[in-house]
Amino acid sequence: MNGPRPLLSGASSAASRSGAESSLRATNSTTVPSFVDTNVLVYAEDRDARTKHAIARDLVLEIWNARDGVLSVQVLQEFYVNVTRKLKKPLTAARALEIVQEYLAWSVVENTGSLLVEAVRLQQKAQLSFWDAIVVQAAIGAGCERLYSEDLNDGQRFGSVLVVNPFKRV
Questions:
Q1: Which of 35, 40, 65, 170 is the most buried (most CB within 10 A)?
Q2: Residues 73, 109: contact at Cβ < 8 Å?
């Protein structure tokens, strides 16, 4: 994996983190594969999100430095669309593509037919939205122990995957 991405390496004051750092440390005490959902990546780029931006940026840097980050093609697709169209200050297509290419250094789960089938089964069993089910199934298939997302219930388990909402205290 490459070193930390320049946009994420800016320092933030301890006061602006408002306790988030100690919360993240508690959930990241060992190095295990960690799946990161789209919302975390978007907040890491969205400086207007303030507290969520600082938390997401720090978490992404921590995962990057631990070299245990896992994403899916779907997450990267959603990231690209969101940062180029839905932010107050959208990124240019060229900058968003650069960031996507940097994230390709992480372990990336491909969209496959078997992932789709297993996600549909999980959707029906766990009563999830299709898009959440495919993210969860990608994390399960990649052998992740944690899934960082604000879209699912913090502390919820899907097999060996634990959902962690890094923004739960915000």
A1: 35
A2: yes
